[in-house]
Amino acid sequence: MVKLTKRMDYMYKNINLKKQFSIENALNNLKLLSKVKFIESIDVSINLGINPKKTEQNIRGSVCLPHGTGKNIRLAVFADGQEAQQAKKLGVKLIGMDDLSTKITNGEKKFDVVISTPEAMNIVSKLGPILGPKGLMPNPKLGTITNNITETIEKIRNGQINFRNDKNGIIHTNIGKINFENIKIKENLINLLKILKKYKPIKLKGNFFKKICISSTMGISIEITKDCINLIN
User: Fold this and answer.
1) Residues 176 and 43: beta-carbon distance below 8 Å
2) Same domain, 101 and 173
3) Is pLDDT of 105 > 90?
4) Of 13-27, 59-73, 104-118, highest mean pLDDT
5) Is there a domain that residue 5 lies in?
């Protein structure tokens, strides 16, 4: 058996993980139990009642969180000409075409989102083996293949996040920082659930939202009640 650190042992002894908590109580517990010296992120895991083996049931999209994630999003933009100039004016550091592709091939990792103009996709597509497994390939459904570079960058910086289910049918994403007011994290979560509901497969039977858990970066996962789902109906 793996020996728990003092920090983890403290958390497990001070919360009953066999029970569900309201979103407010869950957040209060995460904040009380946080003993690290940096501002943790608040993450959510949403177990969906889908069959990920069926292509038509896989979920992928984007949503603008009303209060953002509190994270400084690092961008890589594949563009040239006017679009590249727009990205530069907005402070993006990684901009280019073949030269940016070479940097990423050689190990450049200082980016969280990749944006591309349609014309640059012949270059970006060659990076599929690198970007694909990380969920970083630009996609028109996510708005990351675009000619409107300025609008896309501003949306992402103002709280737009991308989501997709993993092989187990679970959506994992960030919904804020631990120093956010509880109401802001709750509103971010509700907004995410509202958008996810729109992606519910038409032929899906049973509950779409099976289980919802939240956690902090260095904390434990707490299952929350589904009261917040009532607010999206």
Assistant:
1) no
2) no
3) yes
4) 104-118
5) no
Please tell me whether residues 79 and 144 are part of one structural domain: yes
Tell me the per-residue pLDDT of 35-84, one tens digit each, with 9 for 90 and over.
Answer: 888 999 999 999 999 999 999 999 988 899 999 999 889 999 999 999 99
Cα–Cα distance for residue pair 223/211, rounded to 1 Å: 7
Residue 25 clears pLDDT 70, i.e. is over it: yes
- Residues, the chain: 233
CATH of residue 96:
3.40.50.790
Which domain covers residue 44, as residue numbers? 18-69+161-230
Considering the domain architecture, whether residues 142 and 178 belong to the same structural domain is answered as no
Domain end (from 125, 158, 191): 158
Residue 183 lies in a domain: yes
Which of these three, 137, 158, 179, is where a domain ends?
158
176 φψ region: left (φ > 0), alpha (ψ -120 to 50), beta (else):
left
Which DSSP string corresponds to 128-153?
Answer: HHHHGGGT-S--GGGT-B-S-HHHHH
168: CB partners within 8 A, 6+ apart: 47, 52
Q: Is the pLDDT of residue 205 over 90?
A: no
| φ/ψ of residue 232, rounded to 5 | -105, -5
Buried b (16+ CB within 10 A) or exposed e, 19-36: ebbebebbbebbbebbee
